[in-house]
Amino acid sequence: MEFLGSNILSIDQFDRKDIDLIFKTADQLFPFASRQKITRVLQGAILSNMFFEPSTRTRISFGSAFNMLGGEVRETTEVEATSLAKGESLYDTSRVLSGYSDVIVMRHPLAGSVAEFAKASRVPVINGGDGDNEHPSQALLDLFTIKKELESHKKNIESSRIALIGDLKFGRAVHSLCKVLMLYENISIKLVSPNELKLPNFLVGELKKRNISILETQDIKEGIADVDILYMTRIQEERFNNSSEASKYKGLMSLNQEIYTKNCEPNTVIMHPLPRDSRKDANELDEDLNQNPNLAIYRQTDNGLLIRMALFSLILGVADKIEDTASSVDWFSNKS
Amino acid sequence: MEFLGSNILSIDQFDRKDIDLIFKTADQLFPFASRQKITRVLQGAILSNMFFEPSTRTRISFGSAFNMLGGEVRETTEVEATSLAKGESLYDTSRVLSGYSDVIVMRHPLAGSVAEFAKASRVPVINGGDGDNEHPSQALLDLFTIKKELESHKKNIESSRIALIGDLKFGRAVHSLCKVLMLYENISIKLVSPNELKLPNFLVGELKKRNISILETQDIKEGIADVDILYMTRIQEERFNNSSEASKYKGLMSLNQEIYTKNCEPNTVIMHPLPRDSRKDANELDEDLNQNPNLAIYRQTDNGLLIRMALFSLILGVADKIEDTASSVDWFSNKS
Amino acid sequence: MEFLGSNILSIDQFDRKDIDLIFKTADQLFPFASRQKITRVLQGAILSNMFFEPSTRTRISFGSAFNMLGGEVRETTEVEATSLAKGESLYDTSRVLSGYSDVIVMRHPLAGSVAEFAKASRVPVINGGDGDNEHPSQALLDLFTIKKELESHKKNIESSRIALIGDLKFGRAVHSLCKVLMLYENISIKLVSPNELKLPNFLVGELKKRNISILETQDIKEGIADVDILYMTRIQEERFNNSSEASKYKGLMSLNQEIYTKNCEPNTVIMHPLPRDSRKDANELDEDLNQNPNLAIYRQTDNGLLIRMALFSLILGVADKIEDTASSVDWFSNKS
Question: Does the interface ipTM go beyond 0.90?
Answer without folding.
Answer: yes
